[in-house]
Amino acid sequence: QVQLVESGGGLVQAGGSLRLSCAASGRTSSTYNMGWFRQAPGKEREFVAAISWSAAGIYYEESVKGRFTISRDYAKNTVYLRMNSLKPEDTAVYYCALDQSRFLSRTPEAYDYWGQGTQVTVSS
Known about the structure:
The protein is 0% helix and 51% strand. The chain has no helices and eleven strands. The protein is globular.
């Protein structure tokens, strides 16, 4: 079994920054991709960013390009999402997810394990 634990959410004013962390533990494969998704009230879960095992592949959702940065620390089995210039529309529960396949994906169905989510609230 694999466990993912997110942290770093909170309340921030528009224009501010937050850094989310997601630590993976348990029986992960030797290589795995990581993704961040978010879900706002009344909306479907949407893709935010993803990073391949080697970090050679990185995807971002269009609305966060230039503002968010995904990265990973192999020694700590942790993936980060640095969020700058936050907007009220970024308000959502943010989830990290782990995908043990070879292909980096933007779709939730591709991911095998999910964290419990962390709330990000951006006030105007």
